[in-house]
Design brief:
single chain, mainly alpha, about 45 residues
Length: about 45
């Protein structure tokens, strides 16, 4: 069953990275919203 392992691991890592990216974007938008800064948001779009 190496095939399932090789496909499952990258998908798991990818999903983890997506969650991290969304969390960072959410925190960044919260942090910079009061300052009116959209720079970080535009960089991550």
């Amino acid at each position: 069953m190496p095939h399932t392992s090789l496909t499952w691991i990258p998908m798991n890592v990818h999903n983890g990275l997506q969650q991290i990216i969304q969390a960072v974007r959410y925190l960044s938008l919260r942090s910079f919203h009061n300052k009116g800064s959209q720079e970080l948001f535009l960089l991550t779009e």
